Amino acid sequence: MTNKKDSILVTGGAGFIGSNFVLTWLKESGSPVINLDSLTYAGNRNNLKSLDRDPRHIFVHGDIADNALVGGLLREHRPKAIVHFAAESHVDRSIVGPDAFIQTNVFGTFSLLQTARAFYAELSEEEQETFRFLHVSTDEVYGSLGPDDPAFSEATAYAPNSPYAASKAASDHLVRAYFHTYGLPVLTTNCSNNYGPYQFPEKLIPLMILNSFEGKPLPVYGDGKNVRDWLFVEDHCSAIRAVLDRGRLGETYNIGGSSERTNIDVVTTICDLLDELAPSKTIGSRRNLISYVKDRPGHDRRYAIDARKIKQELGWEPAERFESGIRKTVEWYLAHQEWVENVRSGAYHRWIETNYAERVAQ
Ligand code: NAD
Ligand code: DAU
């Protein structure tokens, strides 16, 4: 059993953001983490290898929808908070097969809320005062912006366009309802695109880094002018810590890096960094690898976050600029070839085949 007063339960802590969160949490706060993760293709225990001998990290292999397991963990460890990252997270996969997204993001979150609610009801008044359920969500729930639209604020109406975004929107609504109906002390964060170490190479940035390094085609969807607002993953983690620490109950907080970039800008930046850090005579200029391919159905044109609320209320701001963060990220992937090889299993190659086979160069 961990120190009852201090521990937190993290779900999805073997994934990209969750593992960065666990690593930085243990560095910054020192209080124990119970890490519940079902280890889907995106979950990777190697992300947490540095914690193998750390008694403050308790890894539990299991599903957020397993009420008996989650209820048992809550009663055994009595964490002061649940930080909920576990989800299916890749938009393209949600288009090919939405079922898992509904199961984990909607039903899984519902189950977790039910279990948390039952646990909360058993807490003393003093414990209830400090208990928090923090739900990690996305800016994709707000839909798509035109070039001159103001950035997404916490008051922007929900308008999800992909099965992934719709499943996250549904989970956000459930979290909100558990605050208003049952008084569960919830907080929700809606963050823009993250990048950094340990991101599974199905997402734009790690895919482009690895393909550039290996001289493979760089598949840019549509005209490459879609815009995302990029945030270094450790900045997302520090924002979550701030919301957990001093966020107002029942509130939502938008988190973003004020780093809007078109996809083609991101890809050419990566090409140039690879040319500099891993020059190859055989490959030549990586920009020549860029290949425009068939667009993603329902592809949101632009995301941008208005992060004034979290800045004004909680004093949070990102520490990393895109230019330095992307350089660090490229360097990390080049220095962690073993991690890369371990995640590229047969299932990974099958996904790449499925997603890109019909997206022929245009
Ligand atoms: P990820 O796909 O890398 O990791 C998800 C983790 O959840 C994996 O470890 C997986 O094994 C685990 N998981 C999946 N289903 C589970 C289940 N039923 N029970 C227990 N564990 C399960 O995702 P990520 O990119 O790290 O995103 C984490 C969270 O942050 C998600 O909720 C996502 O919607 C949100 N988010 C992501 C981004 C981004 O840019 N990646 C931005 C904003 C918000
Ligand atoms: O905005 C936050 C969201 O960001 C998170 O909620 C999601 O979990 C996360 O996956 C991310 O979603 P995106 O769809 O924006 O990320 P992705 O990396 O898949 O794509 C980024 C952009 O790059 C998008 O416009 C599609 C484009 N793209 C992506 C891939 C994989 C390409 O052009 N080519 C590609 O091969």
Automatic annotation (TrEMBL):
Catalytic reaction list: dTDP-alpha-D-glucose = dTDP-4-dehydro-6-deoxy-alpha-D-glucose + H2O
Keyword annotations from UniProtKB, A to Z = Lyase, Membrane, NAD, Transmembrane, Transmembrane helix
**Which positions, given as ranges, span the membrane?**
7-26
Cofactor(s), by name: NAD(+)
Enzyme superclass (EC): lyase
GO BP annotations of the record are: nucleotide-sugar metabolic process
Q: Which GO MF terms are attached to this record?
A: dTDP-glucose 4,6-dehydratase activity
> Which InterPro entries does the UniProt record give?
dTDP_Gluc_deHydtase, NAD(P)-bd_dom, NAD(P)-bd_dom_sf
EC number(s) recorded for this UniProt protein: 4.2.1.46
| Domain NAD(P)-binding: start-end pairs | 9-329
Q: Which domain of life is it from?
A: Bacteria
Q: Which Pfam families match?
A: GDP_Man_Dehyd
Q: Which family does it belong to?
A: Belongs to the NAD(P)-dependent epimerase/dehydratase family. dTDP-glucose dehydratase subfamily.
Q: What is this protein called?
A: dTDP-glucose 4,6-dehydratase
Q: Which organism is it from?
A: Alloacidobacterium dinghuense
Query: Taxonomically, what lineage is the organism?
Result: Bacteria, Pseudomonadati, Acidobacteriota, Terriglobia, Terriglobales
